[in-house]
């Protein structure tokens, strides 16, 4: 099915972006948000979110005019947002999503942009043909093509400024720059978790390095179990938001992590990275690290637990050599 291929002819006064549901996806949308703000400084940029964490994330973003939660604050969403008209709507999903397509239908935008194969192509005035292997950040930035901008300098991903606790501020003040390696033990991806023993073996195999351990709130007990027996691990306070995480990551020599949002947190400060991916070629391409210095290890199976510790240690040592 052919759709309109002519970009929007005038400067949009209002742009609506539907936000993906997870932190990593949201971080990969920030280059688009910043590029829109840079290109259209006087335009209103609205974000429609479908989860609380992403609503909070973009509510903290100074590049965004307003953020609306389409599932929880329905009164505000309907009366403050859906009753108005907008110039541009962008749905970034390249696969069918009832929620995204329903909201794309409800939002009264005169120029609706989507990716081909989104399941409801007749809703959109402009369909973008983006290969599946395209990096998520570039896929989001493809909206600029529909707006008539084919030559752009994309902005770096970023974490919006959020409150930082006194505990984290104290820890940051005492943490020397670029001397510690970070290990993130948490992941929201099925098959992304490694064992306490594997992380401990890695730490023991590098006695000359010092470490900081990151975890999601649900993995704090595992974090403490890894911190306590190792003299070369500095105990760190629990982080309360992604901005606190990014503030610590920014001070690291580099980060070791499974494929999760911290891969993209590292990209925000161009922190070097050792990233471990499940055997899923689509993910390791579309969600590849953006840090300039990186080592990527792909599991032979759909589980990162099947990456042996020797391979991780070798990747860490290669990155240490690059940084020497």
TrEMBL record:
Q: Record's SUPFAM superfamilies?
A: UDP-Glycosyltransferase/glycogen phosphorylase
The record's InterPro entries line, in alphabetical order, gives:
Glyco_trans_9, LPS_LOS_Heptosyltrfase
Keyword ATP-binding on entry? no
Q: Which GO terms describe its biological process?
A: lipopolysaccharide core region biosynthetic process
Q: Which UniProt keywords apply?
A: Glycosyltransferase, Transferase
Molecular function (GO) terms for this protein are: ADP-heptose-lipopolysaccharide heptosyltransferase activity
Q: Which GO terms describe its cellular component?
A: cytosol
* PANTHER family with a match to the protein in the record: LIPOPOLYSACCHARIDE 1,2-N-ACETYLGLUCOSAMINETRANSFERASE-RELATED (PTHR30160:SF1), TETRAACYLDISACCHARIDE 4'-KINASE-RELATED (PTHR30160)
In its UniProt entry, what is this protein called? Heptosyltransferase
Q: Which organism is it from?
A: Pelodictyon luteolum
């Amino acid at each position: 099915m052919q759709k309109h291929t002519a970009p929007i002819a005038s400067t949009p006064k209002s742009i609506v972006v539907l936000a993906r549901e997870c932190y990593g996806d949201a971080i990969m949308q920030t280059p688009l948000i910043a590029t829109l703000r840079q290109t259209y400084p006087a335009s209103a940029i609205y974000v429609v979110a479908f989860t609380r964490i992403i609503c909070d994330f973009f509510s903290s973003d100074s590049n965004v005019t307003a953020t609306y939660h389409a599932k929880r604050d329905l009164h505000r969403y309907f009366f403050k947002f859906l009753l108005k008209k907008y110039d541009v709507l962008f749905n970034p999903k390249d696969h069918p999503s009832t929620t995204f397509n329903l909201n794309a239908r409800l939002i009264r935008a005169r120029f609706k942009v989507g990716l081909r194969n989104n399941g409801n192509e007749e809703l959109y005035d402009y369909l973008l043909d983006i290969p599946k292997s395209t990096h998520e950040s570039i896929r989001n930035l493809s909206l600029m093509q529909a707006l008539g901008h084919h030559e752009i300098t994309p902005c770096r991903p970023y974490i919006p400024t959020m409150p930082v606790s006194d505990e984290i501020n104290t820890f940051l003040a005492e943490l020397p720059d670029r001397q510690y390696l970070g290990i993130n033990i948490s992941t929201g991806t099925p098959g992304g978790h490694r064992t306490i023993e594997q992380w401990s073996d890695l730490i023991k195999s590098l006695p000359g390095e010092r470490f900081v351990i990151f975890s999601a709130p649900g993995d704090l007990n595992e974090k403490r179990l890894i911190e306590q027996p190792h003299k070369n691990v500095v105990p760190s306070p629990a982080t309360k938001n992604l901005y606190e995480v990014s503030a610590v990551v920014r001070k690291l020599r580099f980060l070791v992590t499974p494929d999760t949002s911290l891969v993209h947190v590292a990209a925000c400060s161009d922190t070097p990275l050792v990233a471990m991916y499940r055997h899923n070629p689509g993910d390791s391409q579309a969600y590849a690290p953006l840090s300039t210095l990186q080592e990527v290890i792909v599991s032979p199976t759909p589980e990162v637990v099947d990456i042996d510790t020797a391979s991780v240690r070798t990747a860490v040592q290669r990155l240490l050599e690059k940084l020497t």
